[in-house]
Amino acid sequence: MTDHKTDQQKTDRGSAFVTGASKGIGYEVARSLTAAGYAVTITSRNAEEIKEAAQKIGGQTRGVVCDVRDPAALEREVAAHTDAFGGLDVLFVNAGVGNFANIVDMTIEQWQDVIDINLSGAFYTIKAGIPALKKNGGYIFTLSSLAGKNPFAGGAAYNASKFGLNGLSEVLTLDLRQHDIKVTQIMPGSVATHFAGHTPSDADAWKIQPEDIAQLTVDLLNMPVRTLPSKVEVRPSKPPQK
């Protein structure tokens, strides 16, 4: 674990907890939140990657090893976050995986891996964060996908997880709005990340970039408190012609 602040300290903007943040969208969101004045905890299952990410982001960044499939670990790390920073203001639910196969060929293990991380892991993360968010109000972002409304061949587990995450996000809005907790589901199309074993390259220049989602997140946090963009679909503005 990398902990740049051991004394309790809360910035003017508050603090954020971002899952799946060693690289890609989670990393860029954490970096942008830090630049905007937030103290941030980032998580990953990979100890070396999260240590390196926290060091690169700098500021008041805590890098912790945490598996979102483990509710007890999430509760423990959110508690450690609130101890370090005096509360929790933003929860960015980002950790996710993709296994893609025809339903005939998909294994039970592949299905369980995607559902356990993308959907159950999101639920566990949110459950861990709600008590702290309720104290002063806050913001939950769920990183979904356009695959949460557009099914495609070979996407049984991934589509199911994102359709489910969208439904969960919509219910969260209804359940939490009277506690002054906003919920926004961000639904990107093609993003240039390492997702599903992809290596970003110059050929991905047309895609949404992780920093674009990070900018969107900061912009949403700056919206008037009375206004909630509850679902934001994000697409590449000019994909290649097929």
TrEMBL record:
SMART domains on file: PKS_KR
Entry-linked CDD domains: SDR_c4 (cd08929)
Q: What is the lineage of its organism?
A: Bacteria, Thermotogati, Deinococcota, Deinococci, Deinococcales
* Presence of the UniProt keyword Transcription in the record: no
The molecule here is called: SDR family oxidoreductase
Q: Which UniProt keywords apply?
A: Oxidoreductase
What Pfam families does the database record attribute to this sequence? adh_short
Tell me which InterPro entries the record gives: KR_dom, NAD(P)-bd_dom_sf, SDR_fam
User: Where does the Ketoreductase domain start and stop, copy by copy?
Assistant: 14-195
Q: Does the keyword Cell wall biogenesis/degradation apply?
A: no
Q: Which PANTHER family match?
A: 3-PHENYLPROPIONATE-DIHYDRODIOL_CINNAMIC ACID-DIHYDRODIOL DEHYDROGENASE, DEHYDROGENASE/REDUCTASE (SDR FAMILY) MEMBER 4
Instruction: Report which superkingdom the organism of origin falls in.
Output: Bacteria
Which family would the database say this protein is a member of?
A: Belongs to the short-chain dehydrogenases/reductases (SDR) family.
Recorded hits in Gene3D superfamilies, A to Z, give:
NAD(P)-binding Rossmann-like Domain
Question: SUPFAM superfamilies from the xrefs?
Answer: NAD(P)-binding Rossmann-fold domains
